[in-house]
Amino acid sequence: MYARSAARLLSAQTRAFSTSSARQTKVAVLGAGGGIGQPLSLLLKIDPLVSSLSLYDIRGAPGVAADVSHIDTDSAVKGYTADQLDEALEGAKVIVIPAGVPRKPGMTRDDLFNTNASIVRDLAASVGRVAPEANILVISNPVNSTIPIVAKTLEKAGVFDPRRVFGVTTLDVVRAARFLGEVSGSDPKNTVVPVVGGHSGATIVPLLSQNAHGKGISGDAYEKLVYRIQFGGDEVVKAKDGAGSATLSMAYAGAKFTNALLRGLNGEKGVITPTFVKSDLFASKGVDFFSSNVELGINGVEKIYPIGPLSAEEEKLLEACLPDLKKNIDKGYAFVA
Ligand code: NAD
Ligand code: LMR
């Protein structure tokens, strides 16, 4: 009952959990026992487009699976232990990765690189071997580097398909809608703000000028709003005071993006959202991955949209984004090379 009500609530509030297509899919979560993994598994269990949920972690996934499996939706759920990664991946069409350590106060996302780079590389190598045609959604930070790591790892294995590797930047889009709603009075669910670039600090570029409520905001209010969108993650890290970073809002954002991808994979047209993918938009400046609006379709990335007209302030934000983003991408590449 709760699950049905929760699913109805989610779809009514966000348009994210659409059920417009009947086909269903096996989804795996790697890192399912963690702060994001647990609520994400819950939300995927109540997504009608997920037929089978495969929950893997180096600790705790069978417990999460047993718990989530009691929810009265149709999908099957199975948990896998540390030595069962291959079984967890078999037949998965979509693989969501929130495995890795989160920030503590005073850390940047790049400070997580030393630990998370090898976790993500090793998981990607297994995906390349067991489920080479799967769509891979990476949540683990630093996303600006973990995505190039996944791409290079798959490339080395000869199975990299740029249409199927996604950095999940949906939390930035969710925050932009929410924070703009707070200052302008607009309803966040109808407040679409494209957020382009990458996923950390100055690489996060909100395009407020492309929203009717956002384009009138200027001066100090504009600066504060942009800062809040770019550094929203810090707010949560600070408030959690050593206990981690955003988990609940991230689980929501991860489930929202997964549902969008599933709708695209199932043939729904016009599913468009920002995501960090291999992109030609700024490749001439050495930036091989970039988040902009992407149409999701049966093969994953269907079409990458240009970023559109920018205000003078946004031109400056983009200028600041590109060199940082390039550094983060090159660091990821160098790790795998
Ligand atoms: P957490 O520590 O609560 O959970 C991480 C989980 O990963 C743990 O259960 C751990 O056992 C598991 N894990 C570690 N190594 C693993 C491996 N090799 N295989 C499978 N599982 C493994 O952390 P969290 O709060 O869930 O955050 C996870 C990651 O997501 C962090 O890197 C964080 O920075 C990132 N994050 C990204 C965004 C985003 O917008 N993309 C938002 C929030 C957090
Ligand atoms: C976020 O944006 O909340 C995440 O990337 C987690 C973090 O470290 O801030």
UniProtKB/TrEMBL annotation:
Keywords for this protein: NAD, Oxidoreductase, Tricarboxylic acid cycle
Superkingdom of origin: Eukaryota
Protein residues bound to substrate: R103, R109, N141, R175
UniProt keyword annotation of Membrane present: no
GO terms of molecular function: L-malate dehydrogenase (NAD+) activity
Active-site residues, record numbering mapped to chain: H199
UniProt cross-references to Gene3D superfamilies, sorted A to Z: Lactate dehydrogenase/glycoside hydrolase, family 4, C-terminal (3.90.110.10), NAD(P)-binding Rossmann-like Domain (3.40.50.720)
Binding site for NAD(+): G31, A32, G33, G34, G35, I36, G37, D57, N116, I139, S140, N141, M250
InterPro entries the UniProt entry points to: L-lactate/malate_DH, Lactate/malate_DH_C, Lactate/malate_DH_N, Lactate_DH/Glyco_Ohase_4_C, Malate_DH_AS, Malate_DH_type1, NAD(P)-bd_dom_sf
Subunit: Homodimer.
Protein name per UniProt: Malate dehydrogenase
